[in-house]
Amino acid sequence: MLFSPASEPHNKNGWLAKWVDAIPFVNWIDKDADLDFAKYESFPFSAASASHEAMSRISLDELRHRHLPNVAIFSTFSDVDTTIDNQATFKILTKLHDPKTRKNNQLDRLVYYGDDNNIPASFPADYQIIRDDCDTDDCKKIKGMSHIGIVNKPSNPYYGRTALYRNCGSYLDDDTLYTACKYQKDVVMGERTAENLQAHKPFARLTFNPYFDKLAMHINDFIKDIESAAQ
Question: Which of 95, 182, 202, 225 gets the most CB atoms within 10 Å of its CB?
């Protein structure tokens, strides 16, 4: 199961991170407030180097030389993810779906939060793509599913719709907007694209999935289908 899978970052210079990390006193790509109790918000060069090494192991060049296990793949991601290049993810899923290497690939499925026009024409026509309709107030208000929001439910006490925490790292250099993002009652949420940051001030990066219950249902159905196929 792949949730906002780390296929390839938008920044294609990750290979430089290990060399920059070796320079004394040059440690950080991005510094944030680090108020999130569960994970780091700042990003050091050492982490970028480790991430690049991990993602390199699942590149298309690497996958061509591997025996792919016949295991069904469930994936979900957003088309406006500003952390990961979803076009690279589509290419990897296409490779993993190849019937020449995995004959029983019919159970593969993708829960996709995005515009169908962003699905490449080369993506397998028989791939099961699930698109959930927006039927809640939460999803009507959001401006794109974020990389970090998919795995959290709206009622999550820390990351949810009325939670204690808001991701406002886009405004570290602006105290007024940072404070408004953190404490203003109604704040627009979504993925922190340049367009969203320009159009909505303040703007918080979405930390929950308004479609969470449907996603849980899709996961449950996926598991049931695997169990049925194994009988």
Answer: 202
